[in-house]
Amino acid sequence: MNKISLKFGLWFLGAMLILEIFLFFFLHSSIVDSRIEEELAALQARGNSHRDVLENS
Fold first, then answer.
1. How many angstroms separate the CA atoms of 50 and 56, rounded?
2. SS3 annotation, the chain
3. What does the alpha-carbon distance between residue 18 and residue 26 come to, in Å, rounded to a whole number?
């Protein structure tokens, strides 16, 4: 089991797994943060709209 192709394949697999784990974590956290900001902005806009309607009443 000292074949260079096997060692190279295992190193490549390990490197790709580490890269994928890092990218999934980074992309997931950035997507979640952006969605939270969008939802907060939408809720604030709705609240401001309701406030304006209640002020006119």
1. 10
2. CCCHHHHHHHHHHHHHHHHHHHHHHHHHHHHHHHHHHHHHHHHHHHHHHHHHHHHHC
3. 12
Tokens of 27: 């992309």
Please indicate, yes or no, whether the overall pTM of this predicted structure exceeds 0.85: no
- 8: which 2 tokens? 């190279």
4-39 tens-digit pLDDT: 999 999 999 999 999 999 999 999 989 999 999 999
Name the pLDDT band for 56 (thresholds 50, 70, 90): confident
CA dihedral (32, 37, 41, 44) in degrees, to 10, reads 90
Q: Which residue type does 12 have? A: F
